[in-house]
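We include the entry.

. . .
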Amino acid sequence: MGRGVWVWCWALVALLGLAGCDPGTELTPCAADCEGAACAACVTSLPEETARPALACDQLPAPSRCLGPRVLERCEGGAVHREDCAEDTTCVEAPEVACVSGSACVDGVSRCTESRTLQVCTNGRWVARACDVACNVAPGRGFCGAPGPTLSGTVRYARRFPDAEFRAWASEWDPVPARGFLIVSFQGTKVLDSQVTDDTGRFTLKVSSSFGEDDRIVVYAAGRGRDGAVAYAVADPGLPGEQSVTTVPGEAARIWSWSRTTRELSGQPVFTLTESEGSGAAAVFDVLGTAWRRMRERYGGRDGLPVVAWLGFGTTWSCGACFAPWPVTAVGRSWESQVWLPGDSDAAWWSDAMVMHELGHWVMASRGTSPEEGGPHFVGVPTFPGQAWSEGWATWFSADARRSPRYFDRQAGTMFWVDLSARASSVSPWTRPRAEGGLLQSVDENEVAAILYRAATGTSSSQPLYDALAAPAMNRSPWARGYTRHTWKRDEKGALTDVVDTGKPSPYLADFLDALMCQGFPSTLVDAATEPATAFPYPSHAPLCP
């Protein structure tokens, strides 16, 4: 669900026509090229199916294991099953494999165990680190040996949520823990210590024994990758007013940061980032950090593309809000991708749903292949298959990462919402595909998201959808279904103009469903999500597998 004109350009093409089925013909079994309402009897008469595991039980290194900090994998009844841990739990393998409460960690945070050994959170798990001396406990941190003078405190930021009716932002702000922010102590210009705030916003930093006037504690909207370098951040572009996304930020650009004197915090150790100081940027970073962790959890601890999110209050962009894997060198480092967010009076930076949607495109660029089909698109209006797939995936990722089926945003002074679980919207009727329209019909991007949402919630884990996005078949051109991308424009009334078939191969929803089913996902769950007899006519009985 992008806003305004998309950065990416994509397109629609006529796939090789799949022959329909004669409704009067008995299909035994279903014809591989069957789709549409004429095949309803064939599709709906398929027998119940059990999942074909991607791994056999004898291929697991143990009867159960943690596939990542959020996914438990076990053998049951000869089949491999996966289970997503609850939001406040983490998968651990000792003393036994289980989703355990209270063990969640933020990468970079340290602690001491009961036996006074040091552990550091790495890739979402607590990992032992060698200590020459016993570990000393501090709030939100552990040290090898006595650390000397320290200052402990908590960072939080002021943020606004939607009101109860999702019609406006709440009139009062709430204090929210600033989780995963880089925090640094300075003595003048000298760095004394740095760490990452934990999941409650706590920190403990080494400080000087006597506070000077220039001693400061600085919080940065920046996070580190596996190599320890800053890999994701929220930055002010320093470009006021309306801007093109092709404009390169100049010397005025800076990573968002907030500073207090060490003396001030020693007397009042709660570091609150206020609205007037730009706490909206902190809200964006909170979402960015969550997206970074969610992707690492789903893809074996691997980092995504280094990404900078541009947010300047008073700055708007030619695309509205958007993402592109365009490299840029700015604010002291090189980034491989960028997110542009509007800083206008809609205050859309409070929409974690919208920000996470843009980061859904980042996940696709990092681990999958984008259809590269973009242009103007609107809520409730069907669009080209490639664009619908990309936008639908991004909205589904937003829902899955936030564990909420409701998407919400504010544009042009109006807040709206979309509920994937109910296939409902506050601004327009829900547009469903038609079985007789075939696989290449225009589709509402939110319908694609609803299909993914229903497929994922039909199982105990959404991991198969992430695996399918990264499957070789989804990342190798040309794609099996033969779709090619289009470019287009829209006139003042929204009518399509200048539609061009580029002839370049591009993936879309049917290719993804093929990849999902070819790795063992049950066709009954796909059919329940797509409703092929009346809605999207995906032929689950005949996926195209390599």
The CA atoms of residues 238 and 252 lie 5 Å apart. The first strand starts at residue 64 and ends at 68. The first helix runs from residue 40 to 44.
